[in-house]
Amino acid sequence: MPVPEWPNARRGLDAYDLSGRRALVIGAAASVGRAIALALAEAGADLALTTVTTDGEEAMALRKTARAVRELGRAAVEQVVDASLGTGVQVMVRQVTKELGRIDALVNAPVASAESFGRPATKVSDAEWAKVIARHLSATFFACRAVGREMLKSDAGGRIINVASALGERGLPDASAYCAAQGGVLNLTRALAQEWAPRGITVNAIALGWMEDSPALGDPTPEANRTVRFIPMKRVGRPDEVGPLAVYLASQASGYVSGQVLFVDGGLTVHL
Amino acid sequence: MLDRLRLDGKAAVVTGAGRGLGQQMALALAEAGADVVCAARTASQIEATAEAVRALGRRAVAVPADVRDSAQCDALVRACVDAFGRIDVMLSNAGIGDARGHSRELWDVSDEDWRDTLDVNLSSAFYCARAASRAMIERGEGGAIINVASGTALRAYTLNFAYGAAKAGVIALTKTLAVLLQRHDIRANCIIPGFVSQRPARGEEELAMFGARGRYIPAQRLGEAWELGPLAVYLASEASSYVTGQGFIIDGGGLAGGLAPLGGEKREAR
């Protein structure tokens, strides 16, 4: 029996090729957002990169990411934006769409901040709660909404990747607002996946375990850290270990994967 | 980055490689650089897959095997080590969704139907993982185990509950393998396909039938067997170095929803 020919099949490394694709990475200044931006660029994508706050240091770090992307031979548009403000995000997405021509993929990668952890629920103020929800959940929704509008208008399908945390699926003491926001991101992902699947837009989340720069973790060496020894792989993850999954999810090869939460966590969420 | 997805110099065993998903995954691994042992019961089918692997410039051997028999699973791993000097990837894809007991009433499923369905769909994954991990540990360079489960493991599957139960076992097995084998640098993950067509539609009538089935899926289409290939390469390669114990669902969005019926009015498919 001959091997069947699939007309649309993409195999080998061509499957992950992003040449000619354009992606917007929100939160590309540091950590996983930066690593994903570089991985997308290495796979051939041109990029728009943004901060998540208007903080000067973050803006400087974003320039470094943009420079690294250009060194890979790809275009990099930079924007400083407060991602927790819906109108600002909408304006930014319009502008970026004009500059890049279109957006094929959106990556939301806000970085966790230290103040989200070590906060007993009884001590969390209204303002603190609102800030964490705004930064992690609302920001993700605003970006998905703005980019979703463009993707639906162009009717060429698209890819949305929300970088979230394993804390969206499980509880952790003294991190109630962050857990709630992350849980919101995961189910927002599922809801948007349902809504936009008929239009060829996939929406997925990458849920991170303990990473080498997780603010809640402290010293990431296994000798010093009980939490790290608790991870089946006995080590923390590196941001660059997230890049290839983002490339896969941004590529044409992942068109039948949607509404999923994919854990990059060294086995953290599977053991008893 | 893309280099981390390459499998050059690595050797893989793929069960159920004679057709459909297994065949496409075997070819994807080969295109990424791996040499492949192609296993299934029907010799002519795996020979065709092996030939296609060789056409891609990789080495291939076709080994007929019934994975219900652990000795034959051991022999597959031995064949891989004999032919290629190593085994880096064990892809347990063999399974039968519509064999014994399919579409029968609960009370009409015999002990034999139940046992055979568990043997071919669950025990096979255990036998292959046991055999492959032994060889991987002996060599000391780690490896990747990839099991193939099914969306029927995660929701009621009234057409064949034994199959759903077996595949749920595969998911649980994968999690434990991941934790047990991580200290040997062996990762274990699972691919969980939803409705995926094994081959392209033949003729207009079948095309229409596939299209009609697709309307019950959020993506408004069935998956295509080749779409499992890039996912298998990701899980087999260094690109997934911090991923273990996971189930990767590839189902057009079905399992993330399912709270309201689809497929009522005709929607534009894309």
Which key phrases capture this entry?
heterodimer, A: 272 residues, alpha/beta, Rossmann fold, 39% helix, B: 270 residues, seven-stranded parallel β-sheet, two-stranded parallel ribbon, 9 strands, 41% helix, globular
In short:
The complex is a heterodimer of chains A (272) and B (270). Chain A is globular, with a radius of gyration of 18 Å. Chain A has seven helices and seven strands; from the N terminus they run βαβαβαβαβαβααβ.
What is the fold's blueprint, element by element?
The complex is a heterodimer of chains A (272) and B (270).
Chain A: E1 22-26, H1 31-42, E2 46-50, H2 56-71, E3 76-79, H3 86-100, E4 105-108, H4 126-154, E5 158-165, H5 176-196, E6 201-208, H6 226-230, H7 243-250, E7 261-264
Parallel strand pairs in A: 1-2, 1-4, 2-3, 4-5, 5-6, 6-7
Helix pairs in contact in A: 1-2, 1-7, 3-4, 4-5
Chain B: E1 11-15, H1 20-31, E2 35-40, H2 43-55, E3 60-64, H3 70-84, E4 89-92, H4 111-139, E5 143-148, H5 161-181, E6 186-193, E7 196-197, H6 203-214, E8 223-224, H7 228-236, E9 247-250
Parallel strand pairs in B: 1-2, 1-4, 2-3, 4-5, 5-6, 6-9, 7-8
Helix pairs in contact in B: 1-2, 1-7, 3-4, 4-5
